[in-house]
Automatic annotation (TrEMBL):
<dbReference type="InterPro" id="IPR010982">
    <property type="entry name" value="Lambda_DNA-bd_dom_sf"/>
</dbReference>
<dbReference type="GO" id="GO:0003677">
    <property type="term" value="F:DNA binding"/>
</dbReference>
<dbReference type="InterPro" id="IPR001387">
    <property type="entry name" value="Cro/C1-type_HTH"/>
</dbReference>
<dbReference type="Pfam" id="PF01381">
    <property type="entry name" value="HTH_3"/>
</dbReference>
<feature type="domain" description="HTH cro/C1-type">
    <location>
        <begin position="15"/>
        <end position="69"/>
    </location>
</feature>
<protein>
    <submittedName>
        <fullName>Transcriptional regulator XRE family</fullName>
    </submittedName>
</protein>
Amino acid sequence: MPESVDIRKVIGDKLKTVRHKLNYSLQQMATECGLDYAHYCLIEKGKRYVRLDVLQRISDNLSVSLDFWFRNDDVTLVPHSTKKIYEAINSLGKDKLEFLFGLLTAYQKVK
């Protein structure tokens, strides 16, 4: 019979890995995830179950999908600064996007 997996530990370990990759302190990570410091620490240590709505909020704040916590792959994150750039570009209208594309194309030719 396969050994059972403690989902608290799986999510906690992944949170810790993400925190280390981001070079955040426990307090910074808790703030980034929108959680109270003590609550976050218990989740990361695998001592508390995390509700689905809380896990969704953490996922949204870290720009990862909900299934990220259950996949067995390497942790790869998009930096927040890159996320902000994507959001800004996506908020531009068609005319501004075409202008930006023209600038980038011209820059590429000069470079």
